[in-house]
Amino acid sequence: MIKGNNLKTNYKKIFTLMNNHKLQGLIAAPFTPMLANGDLNLESIPAYYQLLKQNQVAGAFICGSTGEGVSLTFDERVAIMQAWAKATASDKEFKVITLVGGTNIRECCLLATKAEQIGLFGISFTSPFYFKPANVEQLAKCCEEIAAAAPKTAFYYYHIPVLTGGNFAMIDLLKAIDGKIPNFVGIKYTHEDFMDYLSCLNLPIANMICYGAEMKTCYQTSPWCQRSCGKHL
Q1: 187 with 200: CB under 8 angstroms?
Q2: At what angle are helices 170-177 and 136-148 packed, to 10 degrees?
Q3: Catalytic residue among 48, 95, 157, 188
């Protein structure tokens, strides 16, 4: 359990943010559409959005693992953000979150700022995966810096250690960032450490945890976890 003198105040701030950045339902992880030569096929994104809406999907997590975001250039990632923002501009209920994670923290910050300028609902960050953080405190500092680059945008940490190698307990990350990231609203939890997952669920901020792994039912068994992030559609 997180401990601290300001916890009640911090939780009140978090709950206020969560009311403004409420996420519920299925958040799809769309593929990044490309042409045969590898160029982006941005013209297909409006139809992709319509397909998701027809299937009662509540939002899209773009440029993530399925969307191959870390394999794209900076300009390509910005172009995808702009295309999704344009396609969903008239639908305020449809939430678009983009992954800004990578190995260059300054570039992650620039992507976060771009996402806020474009008007996306949220940003997400993964642990750097080449020169990895040595401990959870270093990871927390990375999160603080990137979240601060988009202070009015919901910030989610994307926990997927099978790809990043950043295998820190999320309960420890929550302790490390407590009260330090005003726009932190959740974790996309894509891992099989159910003890750590349940430890997070036992916190007063439990309903900010999104279960993101495929072929699992744990998110369905908890009344706290009412959203699933990262299904491939």
Answers
A1: yes
A2: 60
A3: 188
| Model pLDDT for residues 144-197, shown as the tens digit of each residue | 999 999 999 999 999 888 888 778 888 889 888 888 999 998 888 887 777 777
Q: What angle do CA 46, 69, 83 make, to 5 degrees?
A: 25
Measured from the Cβ of residue 54, the count of other Cβ atoms closer than 10 Å reads: 8
Residue matched to tokens 């250039």: 73
Residue 13: is its pLDDT beyond 80? no
* Predicted confidence (pLDDT) per residue in 113-126, tens digit: 999 999 999 999 99
Rounded to the nearest 10°, the torsion over CA 198, 203, 205, 209 is -10
Q: Determine contact, residues 61/230, Cβ cutoff 8 Å.
A: yes
Q: Are 117 and 181 in contact (CB under 8 A)?
A: no
How many helices (H) and strands (E) in the chain? Answer: 9, 8
- Candidates 156, 158, 189, 211; catalytic one: 158
User: Does residue 167 contact residue 133 with C-beta atoms inside 8 Å?
Assistant: no
The C-alpha atoms of residue 188 and residue 157 are separated, in whole angstroms, by: 6
Q: What is the pTM (predicted TM-score) of this model?
A: 0.80
The question of whether 188 is a catalytic residue gets the answer yes
Outline where the chain has alpha helix (H): 7-20, 45-54, 74-87, 105-118, 136-148, 161-164, 170-177, 194-201, 218-221
- Whether residue 100 contacts residue 120, with contact meaning beta carbons closer than 8 Å, is answered with no
